[in-house]
Design a protein that fits this description.
The complex is a heterodimer of chains A (158) and B (201). With 158 residues, chain A is of the alpha+beta class. In chain A, strands 1-2-3-4-5-6 form a six-stranded antiparallel β-sheet. Chain A is rod-shaped, with a radius of gyration of 30 Å. Chain B is an alpha+beta fold. In chain B, the strands form two sheets. A five-stranded antiparallel β-sheet of chain B has the order 4-3-5-6-7, with helices on one face. A two-stranded antiparallel ribbon of chain B has the order 1-2. Classes of the chains: A alpha+beta (158), B alpha+beta (201).
Chain lengths: 158, 201
């Protein structure tokens, strides 16, 4: 009778032991996988961020190039400007005060999944000197609604 | 009779239970080992990808440094800057579809007009970087001439293009490739950017 009781107490021990061991291994594996996943996400964001940053960089180059060519004038009748391997839409808007003017270069297809940039150039003429502010935005994916889109910005003043 | 029957039943259950336990343990350990190995490979990939990202930026910023030093600071011409990278003779980094070039980063001299620190990649294959982790020899970075470092797994190629219709716009593509763990697992990352001749008067 005692023998039977002892066996009954041992019943299920192997399964219990297995479940505990499997649980511990699963927890360790989950921890490792989670760390690896976060590293992958970080490296992926770093890559996308670099891509967006250099788009913003191309945008500043284009703005300063356009300015150097005296392209940024209110009398310019052109509607596009080819720069940085792409043809951009060009627009001019007179500022709210008479001495400011806004020039914009923007992508022709804003919903594309490729890289793109946009740039706003604000010129202020205070009769003594003209100051220029370049605000460049770069995107790894042009469509802003994409959850993987990263935006980087560069501002230049001169 | 009843006592023996019950005893036999309990003994059998223990063996089956042990077998089931061993089976579950084996399957879970094998699965977890697989997942862990895959996580380790992913972590290695993430690490290499960040290194590749910095190697791309190093090349981009070196070329920009060269443009600014030559054209802006030393008042050399835009063509002088392009010729440093082989524009005139269609060598080194030109043409765009060619073998490409590599930058001897440890000898980098941004204003070197003859481009002694820019070399052709022979047969379309640029050399692998050395990586030296010896802290006292001032070469604790990826380079091409270290004698004490080991051959790293990264290789960097630079290609350049100037469109004849837009001679003031230089297109640069930097490509970094590496093997992630094994020779069959080739990975790469590339970055294309433009430098413009906005500094001309």
């Amino acid at each position: 009778m005692k023998n039977i009781k002892a066996k009954k107490e041992n019943k299920g021990y192997a399964i219990l032991f297995t479940v505990v061991v499997v649980g511990i291994i699963s927890a360790i594996t989950f921890g490792l996988t989670n760390a690896a996943y976060k590293q992958m996400m970080l490296s992926s964001v770093a890559r996308d961020s670099t891509s967006a940053f250099y788009q913003a960089d191309i945008a500043t180059e284009c703005a300063m190039y356009a300015d150097n060519l005296d392209f940024l004038t209110s009398t310019n009748n052109l509607t596009t400007f080819t720069c940085g391997g792409t043809t951009m839409k060009y627009s001019y808007t007179a500022g709210t005060t008479n001495n400011t003017s806004l020039y914009q270069l923007s992508p022709q297809n804003e919903s594309s999944t490729g890289k793109c940039f946009r740039v706003d150039v604000t010129k202020t003429d205070n009769d003594v000197l003209i100051t220029t502010k370049v605000e460049a935005l770069g995107y790894n994916i042009c469509n802003k609604n994409n959850f993987r889109t990263v935006e980087r910005a560069i501002e230049v003043n001169y | 009779m009843n006592y023996f029957n019950r005893k036999n039943k309990n003994s059998g259950f223990t063996i089956i239970e042990a077998m089931v336990a061993i089976f579950i343990l084996s399957v879970s350990v094998a699965t977890m080992l697989g997942i862990t190995a895959s996580s380790a490979a992913s972590a290695r990939y993430a690490n290499n990808e960040i290194t590749a990202n910095y190697l791309l930026q190093e090349a981009v910023d070196s070329i920009r440094n060269s443009r600014d030093t030559m054209v802006f600071q030393h008042k050399l011409s835009w063509t002088d800057f392009l010729n440093r990278y082989g524009y005139a003779g269609n060598t080194k980094c030109f043409p765009y579809e060619g073998n490409g070039c590599f930058l001897l980063i440890e000898n980098f001299d941004p204003a070197n007009v003859t481009g002694d620190d820019v070399e052709n990649c022979d047969a379309g294959i640029c050399p692998n970087f050395f990586y030296d982790n010896e802290p006292n020899n001032n070469k604790t970075f990826y380079n091409y001439t270290s004698s004490t470092g080991y051959i790293g797994e990264f290789r960097r190629t630079i290609n350049m293009d100037v469109d004849s219709n837009a001679p003031d716009q230089l297109k640069v593509t930097v490509n970094v490739e590496w093997y992630n763990g094994s020779e069959t697992n080739k990975r790469s990352q590339s970055l294309t950017f433009y430098l413009l001749n906005w500094q001309k008067s």
